[in-house]
Each structure stands twice: as C-alpha cells, then as structure tokens.
Design a protein that fits this description.
- This protein is mainly alpha-helical and 252 residues long.
- It contains ten helices and three strands, in the order αβααββααααααα.
- The two termini are 32 Å apart.
Amino acid sequence: MDSIDTELANRIRHDIIHGAYDEGARLSEAQLCEAHNVSRTPVRLALRILEREGLIFRGEGRGYRIRSPTISDILQAVQVRGHLESLAARLMALSSNKADFLPNMAQAIRTIDELISSGKLDEPTIKQMQAANEVFHTSILDACGNDYVAFTCRQISHLPMLAAGSMVFDRAVLESPEQLERGLFRLRLGNAQHQVIYDSIASTDPTRAERMMSEHSHTMVEYIEKFENRDSRLSVSDLVSYSAANVELPNS
C-alpha cells in the first residue's frame, strides 16, 4: 500500500496530466489540504515528489506552479527510454545471471501469444497483455546488471506511455472487424519482436538484442506521431486514453 504522500502525489499528478490545472497555475498547500482532507505534511511531501518529476516548479515567492507535460516531452522521454531499454537488452545478453530471468520472459511471450490467438481485444484481455508485457520488459531492466538503467527509467515512468511495458491501444480497432485484425496483427508483430529479443539474449548475441529492442521501442514513437497526424489537437490526456493500462473498453 502506498504512503499517504505517495497516494496524494498520484492524485495531483493525475489532475495535472488530465488538464485540471492551467499551465503556470499556482498550487496552494491550503487548498490541497482542504481538497484532499489531509494535513500539510503529506501535501508538502507530495509536492516534493512532483517537483522531482518536473511537473511543478517553485515560483517566485512561496509555493509551486504547474508545468504540464507536452506531447513533445512524452516523445523525448520515449526516445530516452528506448535507448535505455536497448542498452539493457545488450547488457542482459552478456550477463552471467540472465538464466534466472529468461523463464519469466518466455512465459510472458507465450501468454501474449495465447491472448492474441483468442481474437479479442476487450478490457480483460488488454489488461492481461499489459501485465505480461510488463513482466517481459521489467525482466530485462532487472537483469541487465546496471542499476542506473532501471533507476533512470523509473524517474520518467510517471509520464503517459512511459511505465515499464506500456502498450498502445488504438481505439480504431473497435470500429470494424478489419480494424480489429489490424490491431491483432500489430500485437503479433510486437510479440514476434519479443521472441527475437529473447532468442538473442539467450544465445548471447548482444548486438542483435540491442538492435531489435531499439526497433521495438521505436514503435511507441511511431504511434504517437500517427495519433498527432490524425488529430493535430492531440493532448497528453489523449495519450493516457491510448495506453492499455488506462483504456476502458466495452465488453465484447
């Protein structure tokens, strides 16, 4: 269970990302205490968390002001994470203890394959895919042997699409059977890339593991750019709705 200050930071972060505050708006400790029915101590601790994340900054005089993340921020962060995950895949391929993590990665690949084979993209299926995808990607970060890779990834994980193993869900798949098949095809391709990454790591081929992870990670950038081209008014809140961890779908 999260501490009071962490839970409060989660709530305020949610509000910032979803546009509840105007850019540069002042955050009042007193107002936050009243709105969330907490004392000043957890509010101050929560604000320090958000300051480290770059979502707020100290204004002139007392208090903090909002720095809302932009689409450009998300794209830059996704690119950074892609480079870090590529490095992690390379390092894991050379790691002496990779065998401890490979079974979980293999099971994650099998789970995603089985879910894709079901031919459904309802909410339970998407959430199970997300969980398996998280296992796959987190295993590489944990096994790479460089603690700063995982540490740096965690520092940006609060942003939409930046959590370990985040998946992108295009709402268009609900529009027709053809769109659904396109969505399933994309997922098959992504999991095929997982298999190549796994095989490269298992066979101690760091160059191939790094190259395939780089290609795999760049898919997130391509999708954000696709959404931007489709809707020039795309907001960070919209990106949250494209994340499999947050999407709510009707039952099939």
